[in-house]
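notes to self, project folder thing:

trying the whole complex as one job this time. last attempt i did each chain seperately and stitching them together was a nightmare. two parts in total, labels are on each line so i dont mix them up again. if this works i'll redo the older ones the same way
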Amino acid sequence: MSNLGQAIWVEFLKARRSKMPLFTTLGFAMLPLTGGFFMIILKDPDLAQRVGLISAKAQIAMGVADWQTYLGFLTQAIAIGGIVLFGFIGSWVFGREYSDHTVKDLLALPTSRSSIVLAKFVVIALWTTALTLMICLIALGVGAAIALPPTPPQIILRGMATLLIAFCLTIPLITPITFFASAGHGYLPPIGIMFLVIFLAQVIAIIGWGEYFPWSIPALYSRGAALGAISYVIVLLTSIIGIAGTILWWELADQTH
Amino acid sequence: MNPAIETDNLVKQYGDITAVDNLSLRVTPGEIYAFLGLNGAGKTTTIRMLLGMVKPTFGEARVLGKRIRVGEKKPWESVGYLVETADAYPELSVRENLEAMRRLRPGTEPKTVERVIERLRLTEYADRRAGTLSHGNAQRLGLAKALLHNPQLLILDEPANGLDPAGIVEIRNLLNELAHEQGVTVFMSSHILGEVSRLANRIGIIHQGRLLQELNVDELEQNRRQRLVIRTRDPQAARSLLISAGFAAEMKADGAIEVRDISAIENPDDIATRLVNAGHAPTMLNVEQEDLEHYFLRLVGMEERDVK
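result (full assembly):
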């Protein structure tokens, strides 16, 4: 793979100089903070009464205020919301080249187009991993700050591990979205596709076929559903198809933008 | 010597539309070849095919002796290019944009960034974000990216786009210097014949996807029509006199008489004598060469009235 290291350096430079890292950090930071807010409501019945409907909904959705519930909430947020948040990052990393009309400068270089596409995937993977680790750290801080009931470290570690596995199941599913950012020449087509798959994921999960629909699988996992090996294979295949499709698009399709 | 660019019956179709139709070109190393055409003539599609961005429907292209096709080894380490508008990453500075491009061209030394900044007179803007540059300076940045690695071949789509008159002269001098002193081949597109006639060795004129004519700059001079323009106090009477003498005199909208007969163009003094003897002494008599704009429009089958 020609000049992959330098291509990664360039992609990091582009990401670092944009406002996207700031926006995504703020966006992702909302997850543990919102979870912490719900925990405060669940912990304090008087406050729950004062806020009325919000506390009632929080109780229905989340149960009791403890580490297990808190980390479970974050895992579900990553599994469902992650497709949107990670999808935005993927859409931006690929779609911006079309929106800024800079893609043409990447197509006839000694650095292969495949290297440039892979560099983009590396940056997306590291960027989203950093955000997920940030969520874990903020969650530890928020949990300690709001004094969630003490729990054995194993419970916290298991909760964190589940969250990271949910992340590992979610992140591969954005590769088809990056294909649509390339083939659709910008941000809007992949974002449309993203909302479509999230809608389909809900419907398909409701009718009981969720374990076979890639974008339903992380959410099912985060809810503790027993998934067969086929679900993991489906996620892996979806990821491979997304990466291969994006590379093939860059290599073979007519590039007229 | 292998041509720097060679296309063989290149065709590009988009559905029913033929953007480029049987285009066969040969660009010799070291020459400046101008590819001239109106907007939508097929210039950019041709350039994209030369750069491997668009696949030809039929035919093939060779750049620096290498066939441009999927799976073939590409010559991009020796090619610099600017396609359509000069775009850059808006949040990166001029220097960072060039540094990014340098890293994607392995073997290009770090000092080339500063050198090209200086050469394109971008020093003042080197640390400014590209998104804040004027159109002219953005164009300079686009050209700097193309020149960064000292390419053997430059493929430039409308390189003077957005530049002020001083910038146009500067880029013209730069391209001349590259071609004549360093042997760089320049293939540039334009829609302004006057602009390229001062720079190019050879001009290819494309219209509706077809190559209408290829000519050297000296042929351009020969091919342009000449006319004799006459003004008199009584143009109608003077025109009648010339017609009766066997000249195809035409009355123009501004009251001038235009004669295209070779004998009149070569002997304007005879025309003057005839007019004076008939009592219609000319107030103005001038042999004019067809300007480049009219020549170009005539070549592509459009007269001035068609573009009004």
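what i see at first glance: Chain A has one domain: 4-252.
need to look closer tmrw
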